[in-house]
Amino acid sequence: MEKIVEKINSYHIFNYLVPGYLFLIISGKILKTTLISNNIISSFFEAYFIGIVISRISSLITEKIIVKIWALKKEPYDKYIEANNEDGKLEVLNQDCNMYRSLCTLMLLELVLKIISLLKISNLINKDILIIVILILLVILFAFSFVKQNKYISLRVKKINTRGR
Fold it and tell me: In 3-state terms, what secondary structure has residue 82?
């Protein structure tokens, strides 16, 4: 466990653990139950995984919606890499930006959960079908996340290789 904790940086704490724990706490209040395990290791991994899911939803869906609504202009990734090499503060600002995006997604998910609980929709849904649908959505979410991450890696490799010539 110590080695795992050593590998966690501030990005993981503020973009995965914090949203994951907040989701468990707020959802528990909405559903009037306790979702956080008494086992600290189990609750750590639960919160971390939920935080990753929230982060991926925020990266793939929420960000696109916010960018469209507010007509934000995003710089190309290779320009971000260049600027990041010159301005060390940029990485921290980007981390904060991602955290706000994840927290926005967290609140949207909690809003959906509250609406579902108020409408008693969960009583109308077969639990086994719900689990299958959630698992399929998670497969899709992580497949798209893999593709997006792979694009970032390729762009960084290309940037380094063109700089070396």
Answer: helix
d(C-alpha 61, C-alpha 43), whole Å: 26
C-alpha span between 45 and 52 (Å, rounded): 10
Retrieve residue 77's tokens: 């990734």
Share of residues in the chain with pLDDT > 70 (%): 96
Query: What is d(CA 122, CA 37) in angstroms, rounded to the nearest whole number?
Result: 22
Local confidence band at 164 (pLDDT 50, 70, 90 cut-offs): low
44's CB contacts (< 8 A; 6+ apart) are 17
pLDDT of residue 43: 95
SS3 123: helix
- Digit-coded pLDDT (tens) for 108-136: 999 999 998 888 776 777 888 889 999 99
Confidence of residue 89 (pLDDT cuts 50, 70, 90): very high
CA 62 – CA 101 distance, rounded (Å): 7
Kindly report each contact of residues 76-85 with a partner whose C-beta sits within 8 Å and lies 24 or more positions away, as own/partner. 77/152, 77/155, 78/155, 78/158, 78/159, 81/155, 81/156, 81/159, 82/159
